[in-house]
Design a protein that fits this description.
It is built from four helices and six strands. The protein is α/β, with parallel strands linked by helices. The longest helix is centred in the last third of the chain and has 23 residues.
């Protein structure tokens, strides 16, 4: 039986998946005083990959893309803009993010973050557009209630069925 020699075998690291990117982005956001939560439902049936809020109540939404097909097929992302002050795309290192410079991705409004599972860096800052007060209140309350439910679920997994 012919086995490859160790010198001829190359092992590549597995490709980053969305959870790895989310972890790195969440760590970076925390350093900037934003506390992030993954998979946050929004009004209208959409769900943000990451939503983060800082001590002043400013809200950031991050949409994570790890495949080109997913990026190019996302035509509903602009609906997230009403639910945040700043919007970012997050991609893994080595990802061809050149489409994000195109007009369809509103580079004048959206930022770009490159991340791995340990950290992230902002490659293009997102423009800040203050949310209307009523929308900020709605999003902040929804964020807080979702976080509370998730925490309660860790302490008492059966709590949801009680009510």
């Amino acid at each position: 039986m012919n086995m490859p020699s160790p010198a001829s075998t190359s092992i590549s690291p597995p490709p980053l998946v969305a959870i790895d990117v989310a972890r790195g982005v969440s760590r970076m956001l925390l350093r900037h005083d934003y506390v992030a939560m993954a998979e946050v439902p929004l009004a209208g049936g959409r769900r943000a990959d990451l939503m983060a809020i800082d001590g002043k109540g400013r809200i950031v939404i991050v949409e994570i893309k790890v495949s080109r097909a997913d990026l190019l097929g996302d035509c509903k992302w602009t609906e997230y803009l009403d639910h945040c002050d700043r919007f970012f795309w997050a991609v893994p290192g080595g990802f061809d993010a050149s489409p994000l410079d195109g007009a369809a991705f509103m580079p004048e409004r959206s930022g770009v973050i490159v991340a791995d599972r340990y950290d992230a860096a902002i490659m293009r800052e997102a423009t800040s557009a203050a949310m209307p007060a009523h929308m900020r209140k709605t999003c902040t309350l929804a964020f807080a209630r979702r976080a509370g439910r998730r925490l309660l679920g860790l302490v008492d997994p059966d709590a949801e069925i009680l009510f």
